[in-house]
Amino acid sequence: MEEPRRLKPYTRPQGERRGLLIVYTGDGKGKSTAAFGLALRAHGRGLRVRIFQFLKHASARFGEHRAFALLGIPIEGLGDGFTWKSHDLAASARLAQEGWGRAKEAILSGEYDLVVLDEATYPLRYGWVPLEAFLETLRARPAHVHVVVTGRGAPEALLALADTVTEMRKLKHAFDAGVPAQRGIEH
User: Fold this and answer.
1) Structural domain count, the chain
2) CATH number, position 94
3) Distance between CA atoms of residues 121 and 154, nearest Å
4) How far apart are CA 122 and CA 54, in angstroms?
5) Mind spelling out the 3-state secondary structure of the chain?
6) Is 167 exposed, middle or buried (0-12, 13-18, 19+ CB in 10 A)?
7) pLDDT in tens, the chain (187 residues)
8) Domain boundaries, position 45
9) Could you tell me if residue 2 is inside a domain?
10) How many Å separate Cα 132 from the centre of its chain?
């Protein structure tokens, strides 16, 4: 019989409490879900939360939008749907740039304790939001502001700046077997 693995005793870190930069990236499902779970936890602890979604359009009413509206957590769609299906990439780029302006303002204002930048890696990868300007805003944020960035293909410079990075890895997905997205699960 195998001996159980012993856990190391917990030692409370002695470092300063400060706003963290958290990145959820990778090809697996769950990046936005993890960010939304964190937003719920923060809201439940009385933190002021704001969520920006860089791909969803302003009138999106997916399950998360409905739940956050009931809880009074502001969530704003900044895009025009799924960018890779866009018929007007110039308009998609303009929306991303305008949205980044609003998100940047929220981050720097200090009004929020947690700002979620859902799907923000896409406008970074497409060059619609300059990476260095994005990183500079994250560096310049007030000390108490936590920021979560989600999306596939997070740039290395963002990963290097982050305090916590989680890579979601797909092992298997129902969609690959021909199962369509399920209401309340994928949207």
Assistant:
1) 1
2) 3.40.50.300
3) 6
4) 8
5) CCCCCCCCCCCCCCCCCCCCEEEEECCCCCHHHHHHHHHHHHHHCCCCEEEEEEEEECCCCCHHHHHHHHHCCCEEEEECCCHHHCCCHHHHHHHHHHHHHHHHHHHHHCCCCEEEEECCHHHHHCCCCCHHHHHHHHHHCCCCCEEEEECCCCCHHHHHHCCEEEECCCCCCHHHHCCCCCCCCCC
6) middle
7) 677 777 777 777 777 789 999 999 999 999 999 999 999 999 999 999 999 999 887 878 888 999 999 999 999 988 887 656 667 888 888 999 999 999 999 999 999 999 999 999 999 999 999 999 999 999 999 999 999 999 999 999 999 999 999 999 999 988 888 998 888 777 7
8) 21-169
9) no
10) 18
Q: Which residue has the tokens 């290395």?
A: 156
Residue 11 lies in a domain: no
Residue 32 lies inside a defined structural domain of this protein? yes
